[in-house]
Every structure is written in structure tokens, then in C-alpha cells.
Amino acid sequence: MSGLRELLRLLQLITIAALTLGLATCIERPGLLEQIDTLGTLRVATVNSATTYYLDADGPTGFEYDLIREFAQSLGLRFDMVVMPDQQAVIDAVASGHAHIGVGVAVSEPRREKARFTPPYDEAKLEVVYRVYKHKPRKLADLSGDLVLPAHTAFADWLRANRPDIEFTVDEQANTEELMDRVAAGDLAATIASADIVDMNQRYYPNLRVAFSLDEVRQHTAWAMPGRGDMGGDNTLYNEAIAFLEQVKENGRLHILRDRYFGHVKRLGFVGGHEFARQVDNRLHLWEDYFKRAGEEYGLDWRLLAAIGYQESHWDKNAVSPTTVRGIMMLTRAAASDMNVTNRRDPAQSIDGGARYFVRMLERMPEEIQQPDRTWFALAAYNIGYGHVMDARRLLEDRGRDPNLWVNLRDALPWLTQERYISETRYGYARGHEAATYVGNIRAYFDILTWMTNNRTAQEPPALDEGKSPTAPESETAVENTATISIDSPAF
């Protein structure tokens, strides 16, 4: 009997051991993709910049934002953008588990030690930029001792590993765009940036020139994810990312996104006065009555509306931007919907809707902003959004500068591209340089149109002085001895 009990006890122990072993082998740690699916949200680390992610007048945008949005949609996931101060911080966020994926990251060997990269989906040449009229460097060795780079860049890693003979300085507080600003101003001898960033900033800095390209190195951009050791060999998210990036390459979607954000940068820019005068003769008469009608309806100088229309579309009713804004006044879908514009390519609707949208920006400006500055503030808001203009005002106020003067706001708008200021803002990165240039161009076009239209009645060209509002004039009083208008004047 005792032998039977011992046998039963042994069988019981064997059964328990077998069950325990089975459970141990069946219960596995869920893969990263399964964890994210359970969480419901993909956490994406990136930086605020023109090439990655930022907020514009129509909401979140940017090349990397659009790309990761499509990836998240392909997985049926929501996603949150986690903004980091620089690319090294993006890598650290991925490695520590604070983000599932880092996007728009330049690959370097030291970074490979912390994160696992997809195959690169973009390659850009690096260019040395300097200020025109300064000594032009011919080779990398010419920069030794004078080169300044942002901290924590992939190129700085490359220099340390491959060119220890090149002495350079890193600026812990500045990003690439701020360094190019300082090069253009003559405060720095040179810096290095990818061709896309250089192309964008040359529109705002006519003194910025490319000395040479670095043939021996390219900037490769990829997505970063936790390394193999961090996830116990898990490949689920990594494999999905690779498959997605290969797909968008093959079906042309990657090319479309690149063209949307970067394909136009060499084509856009400041158009000369002679070209503007030619378009006045060729196109303005087609839409002049619409501009006059809208100006009379909303109490605006029609020539200001025409200047906005030219800056937006060159008065082309069929114009479409790389970001799909359309028509003479280049309304976004959201703005057109708010203004009840059903056909953005209809010149009458576009001009009327653009005028009403501009009036909305004008009326939203704080009461303490007086004319003509109020109009310039509203133009900036028309371009990059009301929230970004208010961010720039707050930055000025915090630094003891009058936030209600255009001359100060024009200085502050480019701060919205710089890391040291972005952290203080509510709406983050914005293309502030573009907004400042945008307003300056419109002011110049407005002055030229005023001169041209007054000459039609054999009057001298009136100046747009700082005490006169650019709203509809009460009379066409001639002003004598007006200086010749120069589009390239820094006053604009």
C-alpha cells in the first residue's frame, strides 16, 4: 500500500514538473510590436526642424512627420511625437525605452553602439558654407581651427574618427540653422550642413555661399530602434519598418514626400523687380477687379491684397504648392473650409477667401499692436500661423524688447528655428526666416504697386511711411521726392 502511495506521489510530481516546464516554454515575452499594439500608441522621438517635424499654420507637418504617420497608419496605430533637443538625445530616448523609434537620424558608428538602424532611406551630400567676400576655403584642411559645428552631430563623429588633424569647435547651444545665420553675418568663418538645409537657408541669407562639397563623406539618414540586446532579440517592429521603407521607395511615395518638402527650395526665392513689373503687365489686369472688389468689401488696400497674391502664386489661378495649397491666394484646405471657399482655383473665391482670412489674422492681433506694424504681424500669421507669431512676441517680451514693433518681431521670427528658443515656445519650430522674408517681399511688392498705380494717373510714387496704415486710402495724395524702391533693400 505504501508502495502504491509512493508511486502515485511520484506520478503527481512528474505531472506538476511537466506542466511547469510546458508553461515556462509557452509563456514568452511579447514582442515590441505586440507591446506597442497593446499600448495603442507608437512613441516617436525626433527634433524640431525644417527637415523633420514642426507646426505650421495648418498643423503638424514635415517630411519625417508625414513618413512616420504613414508607417503608423499601415500598422493601425496612433502615434505621439516626442521632441528632443538634438539627434543624440533621440538616440538616447530610443536606447532607454522612452521612445519606440527615432526618425530622421543621421547614422554614425558611435550611434550604432546605442541603437539599431534601418537601412538608410536618404543620402545627402555635406557642404561647407562660408560668407561671400570672405576667404573661400578650398579643402577641409583650410577649415582647421575655424570650423564650428553643432554638438552631437554624426559628422563630428566622422571627423573625430577619420580626420583627427582637423581642429573644430562644437557649440552646445546652437543648431545648424543658427550657425549658418552666424556665418552669413560674418561672426563665424564656416560650418557644414546637408545640402537640403543649405538650399533652404540660402533663400534667407544672400551672403551665404557653398565653398565645396565633401566628396569623402555622405550623410545617411535612417530610423533608430532599440538594439537587439535591449529587446532580447526581438525583430517585430524593426522588420515592419524595413518592409515599409522598402515599399515607399519602390512605389515612389518616398520621392513624392521628398519633392513636397525639398524639391522646390532652389526654385523659390526672391523674384527681381523686372520680373514683377512684367507680371503686372501680363497678369494683374486679369484679376485686378477681384482684388479691388475684395479691398472695398473688407476695408483693405487692394494693392496689398494683390501683393499677397503675387507672393503666394505669381497671380497664377492654377498654382499648386508642393504642400498642396492652391489658387491665387494659396489657401490650405483648412483655411478654405473656414472661409467657405468651395473651389480654391476659382480666382474670385480665392481672392475673397484670402482677403477674409487676412482680416481674421488682422483682427486677432492684440490691440496694442498699432498700424502699420499690425498689418505686418498679420501677414506673418497668414504665412506661418497665429500661434507662432504669438510665440515670437513672448520671446521678445521675455527679453525686454517691445513685442508690438515689426522691427523687433522681424528679428525674433528666425529664433523659432533655434533650439535655445524653441524650448521656450508653445508651438515649437516654425520657418521663421521664411515668414520674415515673406512679409518683406509683400511690403516691397506693395510699394511697387503703389508706385505703378499712381503713375497711371501721372502722380509721383508715394512712399509707405511708418505712420500710414496700408488699409484702403482715403485719398491719392502725391508725395514728392520719393527715393527709388529697391527690392533688395535690407529695410524690407
Automatic annotation (TrEMBL):
<dbReference type="GO" id="GO:0008933">
    <property type="term" value="F:peptidoglycan lytic transglycosylase activity"/>
</dbReference>
<comment type="similarity">
    <text>Belongs to the bacterial solute-binding protein 3 family.</text>
</comment>
<dbReference type="InterPro" id="IPR001638">
    <property type="entry name" value="Solute-binding_3/MltF_N"/>
</dbReference>
<feature type="region of interest" description="Disordered">
    <location>
        <begin position="459"/>
        <end position="492"/>
    </location>
</feature>
<dbReference type="GO" id="GO:0016998">
    <property type="term" value="P:cell wall macromolecule catabolic process"/>
</dbReference>
<feature type="compositionally biased region" description="Polar residues">
    <location>
        <begin position="472"/>
        <end position="492"/>
    </location>
</feature>
<dbReference type="GO" id="GO:0009253">
    <property type="term" value="P:peptidoglycan catabolic process"/>
</dbReference>
<keyword id="KW-0436">Ligase</keyword>
<comment type="function">
    <text>Murein-degrading enzyme that degrades murein glycan strands and insoluble, high-molecular weight murein sacculi, with the concomitant formation of a 1,6-anhydromuramoyl product. Lytic transglycosylases (LTs) play an integral role in the metabolism of the peptidoglycan (PG) sacculus. Their lytic action creates space within the PG sacculus to allow for its expansion as well as for the insertion of various structures such as secretion systems and flagella.</text>
</comment>
<dbReference type="InterPro" id="IPR023703">
    <property type="entry name" value="MltF"/>
</dbReference>
<dbReference type="InterPro" id="IPR023346">
    <property type="entry name" value="Lysozyme-like_dom_sf"/>
</dbReference>
<dbReference type="Pfam" id="PF00497">
    <property type="entry name" value="SBP_bac_3"/>
</dbReference>
<feature type="active site">
    <location>
        <position position="312"/>
    </location>
</feature>
<dbReference type="InterPro" id="IPR008258">
    <property type="entry name" value="Transglycosylase_SLT_dom_1"/>
</dbReference>
<protein>
    <recommendedName>
        <fullName>Membrane-bound lytic murein transglycosylase F</fullName>
        <ecNumber>4.2.2.n1</ecNumber>
    </recommendedName>
</protein>
<feature type="region of interest" description="LT domain">
    <location>
        <begin position="266"/>
        <end position="492"/>
    </location>
</feature>
<keyword id="KW-0998">Cell outer membrane</keyword>
<keyword id="KW-0472">Membrane</keyword>
<keyword id="KW-0456">Lyase</keyword>
<dbReference type="GO" id="GO:0016874">
    <property type="term" value="F:ligase activity"/>
</dbReference>
<feature type="domain" description="Solute-binding protein family 3/N-terminal">
    <location>
        <begin position="41"/>
        <end position="265"/>
    </location>
</feature>
<dbReference type="GO" id="GO:0071555">
    <property type="term" value="P:cell wall organization"/>
</dbReference>
<keyword id="KW-0732">Signal</keyword>
<dbReference type="GO" id="GO:0009279">
    <property type="term" value="C:cell outer membrane"/>
</dbReference>
<dbReference type="Pfam" id="PF01464">
    <property type="entry name" value="SLT"/>
</dbReference>
<keyword id="KW-0961">Cell wall biogenesis/degradation</keyword>
<comment type="similarity">
    <text>In the C-terminal section; belongs to the transglycosylase Slt family.</text>
</comment>
